[in-house]
Amino acid sequence: MPGTRRQILQAWLAGAAAWAQPVGAQPAALRYIVPTPHDRFGHYVVALLARVAELTAQPYTFRALGDRRMTQRRLELEVGSPQGTVDLMWGMTSDARRRELRRLDVKLDQGLIGWRVLVVRRDDLARWPRQLPVAELQRRRAGQGLHWPDVDILRNNGYLVDTAADTATLYDMLRHGRLDYFPRSVMEVLDELAGLDTRDVAIVPDLALRYDTGNYIFIGPHQAAVAADLETALSRLQAQGELRKRFNAAFDAELRTLRLAQRRVIDLQAPPP
User: Fold this and answer.
1) CATH 3.40.50.2300 fits domain 30-111+214-252
2) Residue 79: which of 99, 60, 105, 107 has the closest Cα?
3) Same topology between domain 30-111+214-252 and domain 112-213+259-267
4) CB-based contacts of 193, cutoff 8 Å, min separation 6
5) Domain residue ranges in the chain
6) Counting C-beta atoms within 10 Å of the first and last residue's C-beta, which end of the chain has fewer, N or C?
7) 112-213+259-267: CATH homologous superfamily?
8) DSSP 8-state assignment for residue 101
9) What is the pTM for the complete model shown?
10) pLDDT digit of tens for each residue in the chain (273 aa)?
11) Measured at the alpha carbon of residue 19, what is the angle toward residues 13 and 24, in degrees to the nearest 5?
């Protein structure tokens, strides 16, 4: 009966260990630092991560970095380093992110990051008719953030682009005539303008740009286990329809206000998302 005795001993040891543990004790949380959300989409992603953590076997928790802001390139370097101060980020795919990071292959935003409306000087609205030729649009100067993947997409489609470190600077450049327009995602533009003095800027009412892309979560290649856990949970939410429901609840009102179906859409080519 040696096998039976061994099984009895193992069962006794397991019971003793459980008895010795305080009532209600849980495994230590696996804490991960994420960028501090500064917009509606960021808050949506952080809430989504909390929901994802509920579906994993491991006790993951996610904490915001704090008030420190980083450029997208700085975030990439921090996430990619085992000694980095940030453990994951979200955004569009780029060549650098393909090379250096591990992408969770679940699109977070139904592809709407690739829908762009044009913010211009209010006094210039007459220069932005629905029938504006694409060749004329390509001659006008757009603004985008330094290291944003959109910069290469626009330039590869023949558009002129100037860059700056942050959106506040880009809006100032637009106001002072250093840019002709600022293409902004339909997920972010209304919240941005709500926080600005909009007497001198406005959204072109009848035009939009569109390219095939998406927002994803990126993790350092040294975090293979957490990447697999989170991707599995995200895939489950996607398959069950919960991901779309959460996104719609966060952004439906903005999309209705922007009347995308009534706009003339100019399609741009982009690398595979």
Assistant:
1) no
2) 99
3) yes
4) 119, 201, 203
5) 30-111+214-252, 112-213+259-267
6) N
7) Periplasmic binding protein-like II (3.40.190.10)
8) S
9) 0.83
10) 444 434 433 433 333 333 233 333 344 458 899 999 989 999 999 999 999 999 999 999 999 988 778 889 999 999 999 999 999 999 999 999 999 999 999 999 999 999 999 999 999 999 999 999 999 999 999 999 998 999 999 999 999 999 999 999 999 999 999 999 999 999 999 999 998 887 899 999 999 999 999 999 999 999 999 999 999 999 999 999 999 999 999 999 999 999 999 999 999 999 887
11) 135
Tokens standing for 270?
Answer: 């982009």
Please state the length of the chain.
Answer: 273
| One-letter amino acid for residue 152 of the chain | D
18: Cβ–Cβ under 8 A, 6 or more apart, which residues?
none
